[in-house]
Amino acid sequence: MEIIIIGLLAFAGYRFFRHTSRTGKEAVRAYVYLETLKKGLPPEDANVMTEVLLSDVGKDLAINAMNMAKLEYATVHRGKQLPMIGYAYRQGMQTTMPFWYQKMALAAPETLGIEVAYGRISTITTDEDPQADEDMRKDERYVDFYETYANEVHRISGKSVSDPRVTDLMEHEPLHRAHTDGIDPLLLAAKYCHDHKIIEKFADYESYYAAFAQELRRFSANASEHAGWLARAHPNLIDSNFKQDIHPRLTALSFHHLVTEQHSA
């Protein structure tokens, strides 16, 4: 067990809030409502349209709305959901959320992203602003990071490609921090699944070991180093993690930490 603990220490700062579908759906509702208002509908009609569109989360329209909302929160609002929800409330969005939640959302300060997307400066363009262009490129890199992370969590969970991704309604702030700090999204996905008991099953030890060996390649500088590390990997330790359903990527990470510490000692 010690081998996995070493590796998990590297991710201590990236624990995620557990997914809560009600607050996540409220974030999607806020996005759909504000986009509907933006098209010229009055608040009463926008509320009706929002409820109709999101009435069945399994429908293509609802799934598309969820994906678009996810992208909007990631690229424009830096993952901050409460300011967007509070702004939607102020613009007349109806809600069944508890009073304390409404009060918290309404207290969230309005962000520049909201101003740009829906407020007084929504028509201003930044085509000639180099800093804005750089921010956009950074956002694109974050979206690539997020998509890699979300798709891997979805794959490990064993869901079909048509199922909504469990990560799509999560807060993005911890992910932004991980992206900024250069954390590998595939490692982060394995850690998230480990924390939430989402298990990728392997038929036998041989298939698990093969996956471990493949994952270990990401940490080795060359084939020779990789072969040397594999020769030092004790089968009993790997077998123990296999029996505990610890993802081979995390086993490889913790083994890498162990080898590195031994080398520097």
UniProtKB/TrEMBL annotation:
Name of the protein in its database record: Uncharacterized protein
Domain of life: Bacteria
